[in-house]
Amino acid sequence: MSRPRKVHVKSFGCQMNVYDSHRMADTLAPGGFHETAAPEDADLVILNTCHIREKAAEKVYSEIGRIRVMKEEAERQGRKILIAVAGCVAQAEGQEIMRRAGSVDLVVGSQNYHRLPELVARAASGEKIVDTEFPIEDKFEKLAAPRRDAIRARGISAFVTVQEGCDRFCTFCVVPYTRGAEVSRPLKQIVAEVERLAAAGVREITLIGQNVNAYHGLGEDGASSSLAKLLRRLARVSGICRLRYTTSHPRDMDDDLIAAHGELNALMPYVHLPVQSGSDRMLAAMNRRHTREDYLEVIARLRQARPDLAFTSDFIVGFPGETESDFRDTLSLIEHVGFASAYTFAYSPRPGTPAAEMENQIQDEEKSERLQRLQAAVTRQWRAFNASFAGRELDVLLEKSGKLPGQLVGRSSYLQSVQVMAPHSHIGSVARVIVTDIGSNSLFGALADNEAAPQLTAAGA
Ligand code: SF4
210 in ligand 1 pocket by Cβ < 6 Å? Predict the structure, then answer.
């Protein structure tokens, strides 16, 4: 009997890549591939790459170098390891990967993962393959559904990709080039996937997409469905008690989505809404197609619909042409909104994007000085946000055992990690917790009523 084959998938970058990695493993499972955490044990190593970070391609080549050493060692022992490169770097570099890294057997673009079983079989027989075309067929329709045991192993909180690609063309961003035009999955397909996840014990779903609130998938009535409609439908799936979505563009935050925040209990009051800059001049140079005022208006309307909403955002400092005055506009926007958290970046050019060609690039020292001031402002707000929970009661979705005996770890509605002493049987339920202490990375609490039965929350409005 031949030994079971093993696949190791290493994910770089965002949650969309983590989701894709799971779906690749699911798609290879019917062909006899089991997942392994050890690349040296694998018959197939897939590097699921990300193009967002600086020098992304160079980092992938150095990772390939490390796997090549394992491949050569395996060959000395009479065993073969196939190396596949997937994700955005695969999409962007294509044939160049084969030219520079002879040890790679397969390069597969982000729209072609459903073809993996066939591509891997061909690569195993010695063919070198680059498959980065954008196909006509629906990748999601053809990707294998995750098995129940795989879903359970991945926890009670799951990500579901509902939309891919982007039509917005911000001048700093590679996504429109690596992931292509916006494509949304049909609503029915997403509902079926969420129902399967819920039946296997998943309680929280985060809908993901590069521009998720531009979602416009085919609805059950044959018309295009908005993200708000999709959320309303998913809030009715039995067992799902929490819904989130990320990442959004302020221009796509429509009236119906804002209203959904006021209606749906299952929709968590925590919104990631990137603004990038507080300066209208910079927003125009970034081709964001909204002003500072537009952004502040969206925030105000969301707060009106749901007063307990908290926001996180993305900021880029040192974009080409940014002056001290532009930067101060960003700081003042932060003060005005009051964010619970934020991702902060010093601008770095991505090859092939318009901003990379702009002449008025900012010196590194200036960028890092602004980044420090930005991070200080954001950290102050993050600390104040967490401190405001001292002594308050929170809903906590209990996810897993903690480090101490009898301790469980869960997440608040605002994604804060909360540690609480509670019976193991409470995992998967939402508990009322009183916050007793604020740590640097976690909140600590006690069950509001120790005798209370776990509350398997009703989903929906
Ligand atoms: S909206 Fe987001 S994904 Fe689309 S181009 Fe802009 S930054 Fe990139």
Answer: yes
Choosing from 110, 163, 167, 170 the residue with most ligand 1 atoms within 8 A of its CB, the one to mutate for a pocket test is: 170
Could you report the per-residue pLDDT of 359-401, keeping only the tens digit for each?
Answer: 999 999 999 999 999 999 999 999 999 999 999 999 999 999 9
Q: If you measure from the C-alpha of residue 219 to the centroid of ligand 1, how many angstroms do you get, rounded to a whole number?
A: 25
> Which whole-number Å values give the CA distances from 415 to 101, 310, 312, 325, in the listed order?
40, 11, 11, 33
What pTM value is reported for the model?
0.87
Q: Is 249 in the pocket of ligand 1 (CB under 6 A)?
A: yes
Nearest residue to 14 via CA among 63, 40, 42, 51: 51
Q: Which atom of ligand 1 is nearest to the CA of 276?
A: 7
Instruction: Pick the closest to residue 156 from 395, 410, 402 (CA basis).
Output: 410
SS3 category, 150 = helix
Expressed in angstroms and rounded, the spacing between residue 258 Cα and the centre of ligand 1 is 21
The 10s digit of each residue's pLDDT in 274-301 is: 999 999 999 999 999 999 999 999 999 9
CA–centroid distance for 384 within its chain: 26
- Give the β-pairing of 5-11 and 44-49: parallel
